[in-house]
């Protein structure tokens, strides 16, 4: 009986005791190593009431929330974190944000950083040392689950499709259960708006570019995209072109959205629709260390630890293949390098293209051929406009004098035939290196005579060059490139 009373007493005081508990700081997800760009949440738990004061190295932080969000970690976020509620201060949680990138890369193979709810993405995991023993984690709201990968042998690359996206923000990352290596995080957000704004890479890297693109689910017939920072327009582009912020700095941090004017794929009425995307915050973080590659293929890294080794990569059709240490860099191709340690590495260097003698020869031949064709067209146009008249007169006079009518006819036919044949040659060549649409334009312009044909050709070439540059520079510090490359696939998938 007495024991029961004691228990009752204890039960009455239990809530009071709990209130007096010292709070604790916990980190979600609980990563062993924190790399630049990681998304983290620090939570002050213990007492449920009262205002929270956050400290970093004993300095008071602005946030008064129970949960402190680090949207894109960077080395300057390192330090001792503690929180205080009702005068009770927690123990320190020590956070170290490394200066390098993780050794494995996780990218979006199919899909985008912003998807619609219930859709899913395909992710691609790559690790130079192979993926044996690797698993992934997925964080949906507060819940973290494991994703088992079916790994046979020890592949360096693997694609997998996680379950549908059912929360606002889903975070993926992978790690080696037997070692310390891990990948970067991939964050997929959902939006039920018809228009979504995609940013590559997100979070943005200080000093590097950020590409913004306005996409509309179900159609690629976009006539105009307007980009907003806060509530003011900062760029309007025609069609579905993207907008690139060349250099991200602290002043570019903010909330962005876009507005697209579009039509549905099989829409027959002429009026367009205009919709706005959700607003997205763009955090910026300091770039991890990057290796440098010189024109004569020397890899270096001034900020790196001296124990790091250099690794070279050669561009293949859809990825970068690591070269064995005994493989030479002599063959023609595009190369880049990184400095590596057992569980981290630098960002890749810029890429350097090396052309062998045979490819120089091929390029020269192609250039000469193009010059010849252009000269041919110009001469033909010139003759057509000016030269043909007198020539025809001459011939006719001569033939008239000789009075040989059939021969005159033959010559005229031959001349006409020659002209056509030249046109035919030109078409065949153009078809090879121009898109269907551009080719038609060139044909029409050429037929109208004058310098029009030449001008149009120049325009077409410029267009090609622009597209190439766009894709290339959009390559993020590590992963952005893949996502953007999938652009073409996406528009196919989206068509109902
Ligand atoms: C927490 O870290 C700060 C800064 O390093 C230090 O001044 C303080 O004494 C630490 N607090 C505890 C309880 O260890
Ligand atoms: C490089 O050396 C490895 C063994 O260390 C060998 O298996 C591989 O075939 C070599 N590669 C070349 C291109 O010689």
From TrEMBL:
GO process annotations (BP): cell surface receptor signaling pathway; immune response
PROSITE patterns per record: IG_LIKE
Signal peptide annotation: 1-19
InterPro entries, A to Z: Ig-like_dom (IPR007110), Ig-like_dom_sf (IPR036179), Ig-like_fold (IPR013783), Ig_Fc_receptor (IPR050488), Ig_sub (IPR003599), Ig_sub2 (IPR003598)
GO CC entries: external side of plasma membrane
Pfam families: Ig_2
Keywords: Disulfide bond, Membrane, Signal, Transmembrane, Transmembrane helix
Domain Ig-like: 23-94, 193-270
Membrane-spanning ranges: 357-382
Protein name, per record: Uncharacterized LOC108237157
């Amino acid at each position: 009986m007495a024991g029961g009373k004691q228990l009752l007493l204890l039960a009455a005081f239990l809530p009071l005791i709990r209130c007096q508990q010292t709070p604790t700081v916990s980190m979600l997800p609980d990563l062993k190593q924190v790399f630049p760009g990681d998304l983290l949440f620090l939570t002050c738990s213990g007492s449920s009431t009262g205002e929270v004061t956050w400290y970093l190295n004993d300095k008071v932080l602005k946030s008064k929330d129970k949960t402190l969000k680090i949207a894109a970690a960077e080395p300057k976020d390192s330090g001792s974190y503690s929180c205080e509620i009702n005068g009770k201060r927690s123990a320190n949680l020590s956070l170290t944000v490394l200066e390098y990138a993780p050794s494995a890369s996780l990218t979006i193979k199919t899909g985008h950083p912003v998807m619609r709810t219930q859709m899913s993405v395909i992710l691609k995991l790559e690790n130079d040392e192979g993926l044996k023993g690797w698993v992934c984690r997925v964080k949906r709201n507060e819940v973290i689950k494991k994703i088992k990968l079916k790994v046979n042998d020890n592949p360096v690359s693997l694609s997998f499709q996680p379950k549908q996206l059912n929360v606002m923000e889903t975070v993926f990352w992978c790690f080696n259960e037997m070692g310390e290596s891990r990948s970067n995080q991939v964050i997929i957000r959902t939006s039920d708006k018809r228009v979504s704004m995609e940013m590559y890479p997100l979070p943005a890297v200080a000093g590097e570019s950020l590409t913004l693109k306005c996409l509309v689910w179900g159609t690629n017939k976009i006539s105009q995209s307007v980009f907003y920072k806060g509530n003011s327009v900062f760029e309007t582009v025609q069609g579905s072109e993207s907008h690139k912020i060349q250099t991200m700095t602290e002043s570019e941090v903010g909330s962005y959205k876009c507005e697209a004017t579009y039509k549905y794929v099989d829409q027959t009425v002429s009026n367009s629709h205009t919709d706005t995307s959700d607003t997205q915050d763009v955090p910026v973080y300091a770039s991890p260390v990057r290796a440098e590659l010189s024109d004569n293929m020397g890899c270096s890294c001034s900020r790196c630890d001296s124990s790091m080794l250099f690794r070279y990569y050669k561009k293949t059709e859809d990825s970068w293949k690591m070269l064995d240490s005994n493989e030479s860099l002599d063959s023609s191709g595009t190369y880049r390098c990184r400095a590596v340690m057992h569980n981290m590495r630098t960002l890749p260097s810029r890429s350097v293209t090396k052309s062998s003698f045979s490819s120089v020869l091929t390029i020269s031949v192609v250039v000469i051929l193009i010059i010849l064709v252009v000269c041919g067209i110009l001469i033909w146009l010139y003759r057509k406009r000016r030269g043909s008249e007198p020539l025809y007169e001459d011939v006719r006079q001569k033939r008239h004098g000789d009075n040989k009518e059939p021969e005159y006819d033959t010559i005229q036919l031959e001349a006409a035939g020659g002209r056509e044949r030249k046109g035919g040659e030109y078409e065949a060549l153009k078809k090879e290196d121009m898109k269907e649409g551009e080719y038609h334009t060139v044909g029409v312009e050429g037929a109208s005579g004058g310098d029009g044909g030449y001008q149009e050709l120049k325009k077409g070439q410029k267009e090609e060059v622009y597209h190439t540059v766009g894709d290339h520079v959009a390559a993020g510090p590590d992963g952005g490139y893949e996502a953007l490359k999938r652009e073409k696939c996406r528009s196919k998938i989206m068509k109902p």
